[in-house]
From TrEMBL:
GO terms classed as biological process: translation
Protein name: Large ribosomal subunit protein bL21
Keyword check for RNA-binding: yes
Species of origin: Edaphobacter modestus
Function recorded in the entry: This protein binds to 23S rRNA in the presence of protein L20.
């Protein structure tokens, strides 16, 4: 069983027990709840038709910053060069449960 959720402008396929790194999201007491669920599959090849009240709960494992990405801009023959670095903040979460139609898929 798995669910497809949307957070931080990206979509993730998650199952109970998975850990993933998402963009920094506000959380309280180490718990995050994703209510923007796009699809839920309880069995292989079958999807839930009604996603009313579907949500995915997760617990925060850690926070950090990703690897540095270098952005280099160059205009030939114009003596223009620019180097810039970027590190994206992330929250590492572990998926606990998937709720759909009042029942828990674990």
């Amino acid at each position: 069983m798995y669910a497809v959720i949307r957070t931080g402008g990206k979509q993730y396929k998650v199952a109970p027990g998975d850990t993933l790194k998402i963009e920094t999201t506000p959380h309280q007491d180490g718990a995050i709840e994703f209510s923007d669920v796009l699809a839920v599959s309880g069995e292989a090849g079958k999807f839930e038709g009604d996603l009313n009240g579907a949500k995915v709960t997760a617990s925060v494992v850690g926070e950090g910053r990703g690897d540095k990405i270098l952005v280099f801009k160059l205009k030939r023959k114009k003596q223009y060069k620019k180097m810039q670095g970027h590190r994206q903040n992330y929250v590492e979460v572990k998926i606990n449960e998937i709720f759909v139609n009042g029942k828990s898929l674990q």
